[in-house]
Amino acid sequence: MAVGVGSHGQEPGLTEKQEKPELDLVMKNFCQDIHIPLFVLQMPQKTLARFGASQQHWIEFLRARLNIELSESNLTDTLISLDDFCQVFRQTRTAIGKDRFLAAYVEDIRARHMGPIGLAMEAAPTIDDSLDLWVRNIGLLMPVARITPREDATQRTFELELTESLGDITQTWLELALLMSAAIIRNLAGGQVHAQIRIAHAADLPPEFYRDNFGFTPVFGQPRYALVFERTETAKVNDYYAPLMYQQALRGIEALRENIESQSRVSHRVRQFLVRAAEAATFPALEEVAEQFNMSVRTFTRRLQEEGSSFRDMRNQIQIETAKRLLRKSTLPIKAIVERAGFSNTAAFSRAFHLANGQTPMEYRKGTDNAKG
Mapping DSSP to helix (H, G, I), strand (E, B) and coil, where does residue 28 land? Predict the structure, then answer.
């Protein structure tokens, strides 16, 4: 993770004496975090530019808000928590207003902005194929979203719902998801597919806003959030059909799925738990972490063993990583680093550090200083 460095090589806020926050406050709800791809968060660059935000602004924002170094991250492989997504979504909507947020986003969005899923939709043989991809993979873009398809002789209906609330952005997100999806499908069909948009909540923007910006007016106050298409229109050939790109995008979807599924591994979540705790100079014991994951110590230990890992090894590795970061990016004395990295004493720290790195802490610090010079 990226860590900011002060102007004198000292990390902001690092002092020899600092109270450790309560573990429950640092780790609140982390074990229940749902992770989504970073690209889901990114508004198209054109939309960001509308409001004076350059690519550099976006990079700096990710660094400050999400502790993500974009230059070192792959947009498909980098995952963020659902809570972070909601907060950024909320901040953006508040900053520019719901009307401008919806209008700009829908106007600028294209299938390719949805990562490999969007690329596959764009390159699929027919509009029906694009819709099927959307249904099957919505859970990768937003794990708490679900689409239920319903068909009859003349129409294809896709009901959209959330399996849990997104708080005060729930209605805006559902509305945007339907508007955006309708616009993408219409673009893929060269404007020849028209969706009826059904929205369950009451309208808080005038009908002309939707007509002028999107070319259609949703029907509000409906029993379900849904898109309805005529079957004769969705059977049409996709204007952007590209067989080779389609196959490559399908492979990209599977890679994304595997990446997201790996986040559900207990060992991965424990490591991220410990990383966040270490950032707050907190190194919880085995019993504390097992409790956070709602498991007995025995069950917790067995689950880690089944995944070829152990709590002791992970905790020790993160302690060493923390110490190396402090040695590189701060001028704290060794005694203070020992405490911040969670070691019991200087001798234990030196032994563990030498075993892991083949050199003493001071040799490591001196080497990084020479490299900087």
Answer: coil
pLDDT attached to residue 370: 59
Which residue stretches of the chain are H helix? 23-26, 45-50, 55-61, 82-96, 98-108, 115-123, 127-141, 170-188, 207-214, 231-234, 243-262, 266-279, 286-292, 297-306, 311-329, 334-340, 346-357, 361-372
The pTM of this model reads: 0.67
Q: What is the pLDDT of residues 78-87, one digit of tens each?
A: 778 888 889 8
**CATH architecture designation of domain 41-261:** Alpha-Beta Complex (3.90)
Q: Which token pair is 188?
A: 């893929």
Average pLDDT over residues 291-305: 89
CA distances from 296 to 55, 208, 286, 299, 303 (A): 46, 58, 10, 5, 11
As assigned by CATH, the class of the 23-31+265-372 domain is: mainly alpha
pLDDT higher than 80, residue 140: yes
Instruction: Give the C-alpha separation, 252 to 138, whole Å.
Output: 15
Q: Which amino acid is at 105?
A: Y
Tokens, residue 185 = 């499908």
